Amino acid sequence: MIRFFIIILSSLLIFSQGRAQSDQWPVPEDEAERLSPFAFNDSTREAGQELYDLNCASCHGDPGEGNYANLDPLPADPVSPTIQNNSDGALYHKITEGRGQMPAFQNVLTPEERWFVVSYLRSYNDGYVQEVAKEVIKKGYKGLIRIMMDYDAGQNRMISKITGIQDNEEEPISNARVRLTAKRYFGDLTLDGEKETDSIGMVAFTIPEDLPGDSTGNVHFRIALTEQELYGSAKKDTVLKAGSPVMAPPLNKERAMWNTVWKAPVWLLISYLGAVLLIWGTIFFIILQIREIFLIGKRKES
């Protein structure tokens, strides 16, 4: 009996420890130290509230009301220490990347809109004092951005050099945040996180060896500067044979709900045709009965 209780207690401890570890959400140090390029004010908070209500409230609920969705793990209330103890950069990173049941908003919200959401969340922290990024970071680049990509097959890395051309002079774009993504069916897959260019505008990303490609191993890559407020929509696409070949059948090969009529599931065709025949059969039966009543009336009159 004692051994049974020891096993139960050990299981509970392991579960609670695993649950505690799963609740932790580590953020890279450089991301946690990231600052908003603009000061938060009433207009940014109002814009953030609209975005929160549209994208976040369905899970996190109304701030301070505790009406968040019944999920596992439970979404945090915006006023709780779970959220407010994060730095601005950590909140921005989590909104951008997502994790588990929380979706990533990097392809849904612009960088500016993500900072609006952070601004709204901070409105529920009375002791919050904002630290804004330096003015030099806020200054946008007015020249032309050139992105060059080179694939190192030996080390399975994507190397990129980013330069700017202004007044007919070329200069490296340093300390710029860059993201490498691979195109998937339902969105873009971020590879090796978000990185910064070095002093000569270089940045390198490691590509997973098991990255799925098409039937020949080709992958559609995109390198983009993520700080659109500084560099605009600067990006470059290329297709390289850097993935594992995948012989996936076409989406319309098998019978499925989304396929053409004659490729629909057999049970669905039978159900549909059966329902149509039943409905029209009932209609014709009613018409025949009405005709029969009419004929009976005629015979009685004669």
From TrEMBL:
Record keywords: Heme, Iron, Membrane, Metal-binding, Signal, Transmembrane, Transmembrane helix
Transmembrane segments: 266-290
Signal peptide: 1-20
Matching Pfam families: Cytochrome_CBB3 (PF13442)
Coiled-coil positions: none
Lineage, opening ranks: Bacteria, Pseudomonadati, Bacteroidota, Bacteroidia, Marinilabiliales
Positions of the Cytochrome c domain: 43-125
Xref: InterPro entries: Cyt_c-like_dom, Cyt_c-like_dom_sf, Cytochrome_c-type_DH
Molecular function terms, GO-annotated: electron transfer activity; heme binding; metal ion binding
Official protein name in the record: Cytochrome c domain-containing protein
Keyword Metal-binding belongs to the record: yes
Top-level lineage group: Bacteria
Gene3D superfamilies xref list: Cytochrome c-like domain
